[in-house]
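User: I'm new to structure prediction. If I give you an amino acid sequence, what do you actually give back? Let's try with this one:
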Amino acid sequence: MNQIDKQINPLNAEEESYWKILEQELIAKGGSTEISQSKFAKLCQKKHLNCSTATARRKLLRLQEVGRIVMERTGKGNNPYKITWLGYGDYKRVDTTKQITPLTGTVPLDSPLYLQREADEICLQTLKAGASREGSRPFIRIRAPRQMGKSSLLRRIQYFLEKQQNQVVGFVDLGVDEYFYTDAFNDLDAILYQFTYAVSKTFSDSLARARGNELEDLPQLKEHWNENLTPQLKCANYLHDYVFLPIKQPKTLLIDGIDEVLGKPTQDPFLKFLRSWNEKRMKVVSQAPIVWPSIVIAYSTEPYSILGIRGSVLQNVGTVVELKEFNQSQILELSRRYNLPQPLNQEEVDFLMRLTGGHPAFVNRVLYKISQGMTFAQLEAKATQPGGPFWNELARASELLENNEHLLHCFQKILRGDSCNDDLAKFQLMKAGLLKMEDDDVNVIELYQKYFDGHF
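Assistant: Good question. You get back a string of structure tokens that encode the predicted 3D arrangement of the chain. For your 456 residues, that looks like this:
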């Protein structure tokens, strides 16, 4: 054990949260940075941690006390401290290939490659405010094309609510959870039975994590699935009586993969059922107390174009949160976290923005390739080639257009620089991620422009 290891003592859970925030700053600045009390307080507040300018110094001194950092005053008053991370050398000695791996699926909670966007702030503030007052519960709809970060955001909402708000949080994923058989989406009674079981199980597990005990006296679902009632009423009655009512503390239900029901026979009744929750069970409409949780759902908008969906599903229900593409400053910040051999210059950031449109999955893929030695010239040459870094998305887009004549005609017009008056086609192409709205104008990002210029 070296001298640094002897100095480092355990921090409690709250102190670890403050350390994680400072750690990210230190990683970005190469292990040493200048930071004032007020700046550290603002960084903590952005992560919804209680920290004033007055208490920021005590928190920094605590991190110094346990041996994580060394602080040096650079001036008087609120001038910055020079802060050095004592363990940065050990951090840098970790094998780079283990630190940086290709991002696939949900970004892990401990990954430095997750960037907060405006959507994070909207969701967290809405849920925090909803839990702090008596009355109606928030219903949030997170929507975006594929690979924009919906599931990663849901997992961070769960972590925030459980760890910092002491909520009981249930998480159900219609797309990957083992509770949902594929053919169940064709039968309303079957899907709501499995949905009810999944919701009750996830809340029971959440209680066990928070308090060490599960829901007590949870009866067998099959014994309460009354054949004389509608599937919607059977589901609502069970959840009300045996899941939501017994949980007295604030609670939230997160539902991922809502798009699994789109285009299925259960689509309309399932979505209408969720709408009825928002209208009848989550709002103050009588003297009865609200026992329903806050709800956040997430779904991909890509099926809109495939299924010919003409408007938003669950129109006018709750708060809509659109996940946006990265902007240039976010691309630059993310590039720092990849520990690239050379920092990106403005020309390279501009190129990345033009090529990918700021799509999070595309940007991460490019930065990973660059971190592994690919040059920008090689990237540009391979971008639209079979087997290239974007081939799967290009092939999927090509299949979509070839199977939808009205989308193809609209896309070709915009590709040529002409206007398209088919508002429905433009809407569906934007929801599929093929078009991007910029300054009230619809454009094709350069990646698709280059590919389809030659393809057509």
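You can read the tokens as a compact description of the fold. Here is one thing that stands out. The CA atoms of residues 366 and 374 lie 9 Å apart.
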